[in-house]
Amino acid sequence: MSGLETAIRNALEKSDRSSAEVRARIYQSSRQALEAGLRKQGIEDPDVVAQQRQRLEMLVHAIESEERNRLLNVVEDHVRREAARAPAAAPQVPSVTPSVSPAQWEEEANDLPVDAEVRGETPNADPAGHDIEDFRAERGVVAPDARSASDSDMGSLAFTPQRAAKARRKKRLVARLFIYFTLLAFLGFGAWWVYSSGLLLSPAERDTSVPNPPPEVQSEDFTGTETKPEPSLEAGRGFSDAWNEIFNADRGNSGLQAGSLAAIEDISTPAGKAVRLTSRVAEADGNVSIAVPTEVLREMAGKSSTIAITLQSSSDRQTQLSISCDFGSLGNCARHRFTATPERADMLINVTFDRTLAPNSPGRIVINSDVDGNGRPVNLYSVRILPGE
């Protein structure tokens, strides 16, 4: 940062440092140099970049304060010298600092320690005039208009801020242009919206659908015979007699076998009696087996069958569980993963066995409630199988 300070001060020494515009360009150049230096050094940490920018702004503020005080001292010294040269001038108002006339300032301008040349710019005929006027305004210096002054006040003539007036007129022009442009853009957007939304179209023009003929009823639409609905895999709340009941919690937990790291417990819920299955591991030791009779397996041989398992989560949270089957010589089914909710529901599995060889031993359906490793239990109500035809 010391290098930037030296560069800023050297640039001020070689330029018209009394001009606020020149100083502003020098400060902006230092900011750009800081950003280029940070990019060249590969510094991208937001905290470091913000700290360097803050240090530069503090440095610029300090140098600008020095420049303002220096210019103010020059003006005050000039005023004192003019007061010493003209002792017979009118007494000063206590709350007003004497102003400097343009003729006197032009006569003494060569005494100011300010260079008149700026890099690549034409020297200004009135160096520091505008900026000194700004500094005098901050300290309470009044610059009366020489054209409206009387003959007795000609000794205290002051210049008018013509550049400030031009800047104000320019700002007013820019503000008007901005307002006109905003109104024009708003009107254009409204016209586009009206056109694109079809607000001006008739109802017939808005309807772009294909015209459809009115529906007609023909004799071929009804055959006179009712088709028997095909069996679906939806959850069966009222199971028909075609379903073979493998397990029912109303008769207890008979037919269930728990692994070494699994537990079964008879419970009562608002939905009816159930058996709580708890698996502590996701491996085979946490499985709970449900026996499937041999005669049921024989009905499933060579057919597509449906297995319905009615259960729910034992808590208010969802529980992940897995269901698989082992039907001996008939074959196995893939491992299925279900999500048990707090509501009682039927989990449906469709299995197909091409083998017609009927097994001689019972099969089993395996349930594990510790798929996600949380060890949450599930409530089992019943297990049914619908053999295919």
From TrEMBL:
Residues 11-23 have a biased composition (Basic and acidic residues). Residues 1-23, 207-235 are annotated as: Disordered. Keywords: Membrane, Transmembrane, Transmembrane helix. The chain crosses the membrane at residues 173-195. This is Biotin transporter BioY. It comes from Agrobacterium bohemicum.
